[in-house]
Amino acid sequence: MSDWKSKQQLVDLLCQLVEYPSITGSEAEIALAEHIHQRFMEKPYFKEHPSHVKLHPLPDGRELVTALVKQDDTQDTVILLSHFDVVGVDDFGSKKSLAFYPRGLTEEYERIKEELPEAIRHDIENGEWLFGRGIMDMKAGLTLHMSMIERAMEGEFKGNLLLLTVPDEEVNSLGMLQALPALQEIKKQENLNYKACLNGEPMFSQYPGDPRQYVYSGSIGKLLPGFLCYGKETHVGEPFAGLNANLMVSYLSQELELNEAFIETVGEETTPPPISLMQRDLKDEYSVQTPQAAVAMYNVLYLKQSSKDIHNKLLEAAHRASSQTSKHFNAKARAFLKEKPGIHIPERPVRVFTYEELYDEAVQRFGEEEVERRRNLLISQRETGDREFSTLLVQELASLCKDLAPMIVLFYSPPFYPSVSSKEDKYIKDTLQHVKDYTEDRFKIKLEEVEFFPGLSDLSFIGPPTSETKLNTLLENMPLHGNGFELSDERLSMLRMPILNVGPRGKDPHQWSERLELTYSFEQLPEIISETIHTLLKS
């Protein structure tokens, strides 16, 4: 008997999944993994084959889930990929308590619809939209994949399906990085041939009100560079006796924020320019001492550039910011001296370092044993997140070499997403063309292929990379590498296969108005995904 097939059954399953408030890093993230495992174990197929559904632990105690439905006469296997963690709910404001209850939240929005923006009010009145945190991103995709696994148990597909759903996609993708060796082990144990990985991330609008429907043959790449601006502190009564770190970070912002030099266009797809995700000074409390240090981190998206090329552009921007800071300081000093004859103010050149260069300088001065001792002490006392702790590790090195200040130090923090694409893979090209033809013939819906899924996805760790650049430069300048975050060329090349993304229709991911359209997502899309799997397995 099918439990996850009809539109109503899919809505019921989705609401059950959403009701687990599986915010990344929360206890509910673990609880949902165990709930998914339990739902599969209730099925007769998995009662007969209990080793085919597994919880795989991460080093931090979280878990990912795999569920394999295997045929006796074939090795060919399609992986169904999803994540079950979600972002927080502070953006819901007074409706925060309803964020994980889709039916209740939708009813509440219906009650106050006249207070809501027109686009949201229109969808409420349409009656085919359901609101809630994670309902679009991406528990609807997981729901559809669980439905496909149920179909596989009933013998619908002439091949094997392996569901993989992971935690932590919204932060560092540690779930997917841990999944790679797990997938290798399952492949070996069960003698599988992984033909493709099908993701179920929702389609993203390219502009507000975009009516088009999309499928994707790749996923965009991302770097998160950070810049520690380490100045020379002084009393506000003697402003030219030092150099304010906030001045340095302001010129860095002018050089990097929305900088068109980082925009990349491939075909009709264009990356957004860099934008700051964090910018602040590092003073713990108010005083009349100028801030000694400030930090800024930037979201940098890319398609086919190498990480080394982006690294060089970042360094060039830091050098320009350095030059502009010095010019600003010197010009203001000269203006001040006009009123103070006989006083000399030394110029303040701003040096630029990479994290690797600053680390080497600290080791040369104090020895590797002392530098590592200080770093290990910080690690043992760690209470902050990855971005904050990366900054702290860089700040510690800068304090050891503070006579080199003022300085700007380029470093990287997790997450890192390689750019991947199967657009030129004939197998994926033929599959997507068939799926588009099928969808137009069957439902009169035109699907448009986009090469790079713009919302970031775990496909980055399993698909063919668009650039074969080694990660040396990135990892050597990532303070957390080897200190709580593990990444390597070997890990990233562990498992590569053709990829594609066919997902539900929704709006406003990561917003209080996140919602899922139900007619396409749960009436038409199940048949489209089924046809996609059939095509992948017979090609």
From TrEMBL:
One of its GO terms (molecular function) is hydrolase activity. Pfam families: Peptidase_M20. This is Arginine utilization protein RocB. The lineage of its organism: Bacteria, Bacillati, Bacillota, Bacilli, Bacillales.
